[in-house]
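[SOLVED] Predicted holo structure with zinc ion

Edit: marking solved, answer below. Original request kept for reference. I posted the sequence and ligand SMILES and asked for the 3D complex as structure tokens.
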Amino acid sequence: MKRRWYPPHDSTTYAHIRAGKLPPIGSVIAFEHRALEILRYDERDDGWIAQVRRIHGPKLKSENDRAECGLRLRNFAILDVYKGRIPLCSCCGDPWPCTREIAEREAREDMQHLAGQMEKAHDGFCYSCGEPITTRQGKVLAPEANIELPGFPPPGFHTRWKCRDGLAAYDQKRRQHLGSQWAPLVSDQPSLN
Ligand SMILES: [Zn+2]
Ligand SMILES: [Zn+2]
């Protein structure tokens, strides 16, 4: 999944694009894992085309052999303009955080999530809140073995309000995992047509 990339917060300032308020020529902006130097502006009806040169980061599809291309700027767009030194990755030289760093960060978050889930993945316990499920409490049990922790039993959930977020998040993963085999764990939710 592709998400917007941000440079370290303290390395840039915001610039709101509007008439008379464009970052000066020579400014370096942070854009999608790249540092781009602004060479000039060409005015358009609904904004500007900034001609930019890539000075750090991976090649852009549309750039020419001098690493230059046009960047469409609509009125009121927000640009991240580097204030001074551009933080670069010490391994690959791309603007920080680089693609690999982000992937590693996400992997660490996944591991932390799974380590937390492992504590709750036992028969008779709620996979959302981690507390035991008593016979008096409403519960729902997944029909198949745990899909995020192979080898663990089918997770159960309290049906109470506070456990619904965990239930919904797990059911979303089930849906991705099971594809056309998926049927929702709870079907009592109203839905808009
Ligand atoms: Zn790197
Ligand atoms: Zn619970």
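OP edit: The chain has two domains: 9-100, 123-178. Thanks to everyone who chimed in.
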